[in-house]
What we know:
This protein is of the alpha+beta class. It has helices at about 25-60, 70-80, 100-115, 130-135, 180-190; strands at about 5-10, 15-20, 65-70, 90-95, 120-125, 140-145, 155-160, 160-165, 175-180. β1 (about 5-10) and β2 (about 15-20) form a beta hairpin. The longest helix has about 35 residues, at about 25-60. The chain is elongated, with a radius of gyration of 25 Å.
Amino acid sequence: MIDKGLVSYILKERTKYFQAAPPVVLKELLETKTKEIEKIKKDLDENISKIEEIQKQKLPSEGARIYRGYKALKAAWHEAVLSIEDKGEYLFFSVGYGDDAYLKRFFEKLARELKKKKISIKGIAHNSEKKLYQKYYQKFGYKMKYTEIKFPADTTVAGDFVLVFVWDKKEPVVYSLKSHVLAESYRTFFRSL
């Protein structure tokens, strides 16, 4: 605290007497730290933009990846969502994972990101999920249709990506398939339903 100028002391007969600095010093320290954080944030934003551009250039036009774990799940979705053009579509087939607390937060945050890019969210779920989607997800802009069909896996179509999602609380797994042709065939299937 002495190094930061928040405390000073005097020495009288081998005893240190400490005194706090004026409160305005705390405010100045906070302003200095805030400026440092803003500079770091600006640098980070610039570097993130550069990295995203590099990643877009190096991604093959087709390919497959497997993502395991919570952080990997976010990375898979982030990569896929970045490939959706503004005012595009985010389509998905639900198999019933949507009531999980972690996934509710995850898909709520995702909906906000998609809304910023004016991307519409459309899903098809089994009739048994209707109450959940109407109660929770509809307020975030999810437009849903319901069917008697039970899908084999939770599947998302985002840009040129098809994400097949297997929910396991210990280790969620996402199979990410990048293929324009495959994504278009899933979009056609979605629209036909």
